[in-house]
Amino acid sequence: MTDAAQPGATELTAKARALASPLRWRILRLCLHEPRTNKELAEALGMNPGSMHHHVQSLVDVGFLVAEEPRTGARGAKEIPYRAPGLTWHGSEAPLVGPVLVETFLQEIQGVHPADLEVNRLGVRLTPEDHEEYERRVGELLEWLRSRDTPSGDPWSVMLAMHPDVQQPRRDAEG
């Protein structure tokens, strides 16, 4: 079946394309708490403003960035600030982006002092029921963190990951 034959497939494909770039995830992060213009984003990410416009427009086209009221810049030029409405939070708007998020994370930690990284890693064996409980509890924790987001707080980035350990035999393979 082609994308055109599947309801919503074209929109889903456009969203997936928009989120297939670590740079675009970084743009979303920068615009989450304060609206930023192409120029501000380009400066923050060390890019040319013209190149930045392409990435911003890709995110605007699918609703991941929203244009705010234009403002006048330092030289009198019209500038449009963009903000991220947080549509990628639950994953339904951002399917199958795990590898891109990991690459984004790796890019985002460049230059962070190792003592400032809080990373935990654990290998466990879980039943399907325990895995479901893990997903529920982590979801609750992330929702709690999101509810604590405040303009007076310090900016933090959180990334939790869990995956089957392909280096270890699975229960069904142990015979």
The percentage helix is: 40-55%
Beta fraction of the residues? Answer: under 5%
Number of helices: 6
Question: Unreliable runs, pLDDT <50, ≥5 residues?
Answer: 1-5
Shape: globular
Number of strands: 4
Distance between the termini: 39 Å
Structural class, by secondary structure, is mainly alpha
Mean pLDDT: 83
Strand order of the largest sheet: 1-4
Q: What are the secondary-structure elements, in order, as H or E?
A: HHHHEEEEHH
The biggest sheet amounts to:
2 strands, antiparallel
**What Rg do the Cα atoms give?**
19 Å
Task: Kindly describe this structure.
The protein is mainly α and 175 residues long. The chain is built from 6 helices and 4 strands; from the N terminus they run ααααββββαα. The chain has helices at 9-18, 22-30, 38-45, 49-61, 98-108, 128-147, and strands at residues 66-67, 71-72, 78-79, 82-83.
Features:
175 residues; two-stranded antiparallel sheet; mainly alpha; 4 strands; single chain; two-stranded antiparallel ribbon; 41% helix
Entry summary:
The chain has 175 residues and is mainly α. Residues 1-5 have low confidence and may be disordered. Helix content is 41%, strand content 5%.
How is the topology of this model organized?
Blueprint: H1 9-18, H2 22-30, H3 38-45, H4 49-61, E1 66-67, E2 71-72, E3 78-79, E4 82-83, H5 98-108, H6 128-147
Antiparallel strand pairs: 1-4, 2-3
Helix pairs in contact: 2-5, 3-4
